Amino acid sequence: MLKKLLHIENAPLQTDLALLVIRIAFGALMMRYGWQKFENFAEWSPGFLNFLGLGGGVSLGLAIFAELFCAFLVIIGLFTRFVTIPLIITMLVAFFQAHTNDSFDVKEHPLVFLFPYIALLMAGAGKFSLDGIMFGMRRKY
């Protein structure tokens, strides 16, 4: 079942290269924010958004999980469709809750990350990924 879910249809080389570029670029950019949150955890957790009443520390921990750990998995292309889900949720929370009273210039930032993650959720990681290697993407170009 897992193999079927992670299976990626045959696609042209350009599509696989485009998915690789998207994964590396948006994963690396997102990891920067996750690392910043990780380094400042003690300072930021008391005032961090209290998502669903979980508390600032837990909410910050979930954001770090998505922005650092899940973003790393996106870069290497491991379980890509699964790990985009926490990233998508994090970007939706950032847009609709964390920055709800901010100008669109500030709110736009989570949207810039949201749409590539949605695309990766739909398309998968492509051939040049651990998903592609592990789940048997066989293609001739």
How would you describe what is shown here?
There is one protein chain. This protein is an all-alpha fold and about 140 residues long. The chain has one domain. About 70% of the residues lie in helices and about 0% in strands. Helix 5 packs antiparallel against helix 6. The longest helix has 27 residues, at about 15-40. The radius of gyration is 16 Å and the shape is elongated. The mean pLDDT is about 90.
Key structural traits:
141 residues
CA-based gyration radius: 16 Å
Total count of domains: 1
Order of helices and strands: HHHHHHH
Which range does the strand content fall in? under 5%
Q: Largest sheet, described in full?
A: none
**Helical segment tally?**
7
Describe the SSE topology:
Elements: H1 2-6, H2 13-39, H3 41-44, H4 56-76, H5 80-98, H6 104-123, H7 130-134
Helix pairs in contact: 2-4, 2-6, 4-5, 5-6
Quick structural overview:
The protein is built from 7 helices and no strands.
